[in-house]
Amino acid sequence: MTTLSLPRTRQLIGLVGWLTICFSTEGVGAVASVNAKAFYSGLAQPSWAPPDWLFGPVWTLLFAMMAVAAWLVLWGPIALTCAAFWSIRPLAGALLVPYLAWVAFASCLNWTLWQTNPALLG
């Protein structure tokens, strides 16, 4: 059963539920990283590192898209990869593509920071 065949009220409750779960997770991450800005700004940065202010909006957008993607495919396939989401509903898979791209970018950035800051990051 797709979200389009469910009653509208149930669809909206599901969307609000997924948004709540995703933004609660984001909030926990924000609290856990309260000192991250000061630490991050003290690191030697590669020339392609984005400005500090970009991380908050990017993660907010990514968490919103993850919530909508999960809502679009319902409970069963949530644990599946982006490819599985795409096979169920292309829009749901497409909403996860920026998340995958950001994680790949962040991984490269983290590796570069680790390599250029051995005294601080061992």
What keywords describe this structure?
single chain; 122 residues; mainly alpha; 6 helices; 0% strand
Head-to-tail CA distance between termini: 51 Å
Give the low-confidence spans. Answer: 75-79
Q: How does the overall form come out from the CA principal axes?
A: elongated
Radius of gyration equals 17 Å
Helix/strand/pairing category: mainly alpha
Textual characterization of the structure:
This protein has 122 residues and is mostly helical. It is built from 6 helices and no strands. Helix 3 packs antiparallel against helix 5. The radius of gyration is 17 Å and the shape is elongated. About 4% of the residues have low confidence.
SSE diagram, text form:
Layout: H1 8-32, H2 36-41, H3 55-73, H4 82-88, H5 90-116, H6 118-121
Helix pairs in contact: 1-3, 3-5, 4-5
In short:
13% of the residues are buried. The chain is 72% helix and 0% strand.
